[in-house]
What we know:
Elements: E1 2-7, E2 15-20, E3 26-30, H1 35-45, E4 48-53, H2 59-62, H3 65-72, E5 75-79, E6 91-93, E7 98-101, E8 105-111, E9 120-124, E10 130-134, E11 137-138, E12 141-142, H4 151-160, E13 170-173, H5 178-188, H6 193-202, E14 213-214, H7 215-221, H8 230-239, H9 249-262
Amino acid sequence: MIVEQIWTANAYRNFNYLIACPETGEAMAVDPLDAKKCLAAAREHGWDITQILNTHEHGDHTGGNRAMISATHAQLLAHKNAGSAIPGMDRGLGAGDIIKIGKTVEMEVLDTPGHTMSHVCLLSHTDTPALFSGDTLFNAGAGNCHNGGHPNELYLTFANQLAKLPDNTQIYPGHDYIANNLGFTLDREPDNARAKQLLDKVRDQNPNRALVSTLALEKEINSFFRLHSPTIISRLRQSFADLPENPDPKLVFLKLRELRNSW
Ligand SMILES: [Zn+2]
Ligand SMILES: [Zn+2]
């Protein structure tokens, strides 16, 4: 499997992706908002884009579909319940479905509601797993729930699916928000030395060569995986006086999500 991360340099800081089979050169484009850049990258590598996947229905993920399909005649894949919001869908996806790319690449579909209720993440079946996490999981952050999502479901997705993936899973999110999100981590957990060190490293990084994190790293620097941190809990109790001394992780997640909305 070859992964090409494409920085769109737009105001929303979207990342687009090409995932290719090294044997056949067939490729899938993930959320190819910047169709021009995605097509140019495929041309440069000699890849043939045969599938397009939208992680979810928001315009900054689907906005390139029309241009991509007219240039490549690729099949369009998205969550099975996204059909009314994503015109021209060819294949509706559900949990556990397998997407094949060329001869060598297999991607497993995870049904990951929360940011929207029709959101999929893709997990590669490779020696080192890779997760294409759309707007569900960001580096050092979690998706918001303002546009069709629900924080309860987002918590369940994190706790029951994402947190259980192998620690060496590489994380490929839908946006470059790492520096801003690490600011939130440090606001919630000022004693998080790893987050501080990482922020120094990525603050001025070139998004064309962005750091690719792992789930193990996220568990160190992403507040939404750190629901048992004593610092996070005691800081939350300063903001929410009714929070118990030993709150359950779901409550911690929901309070963090709430604070992040206005941070
Ligand atoms: Zn979104
Ligand atoms: Zn987005």
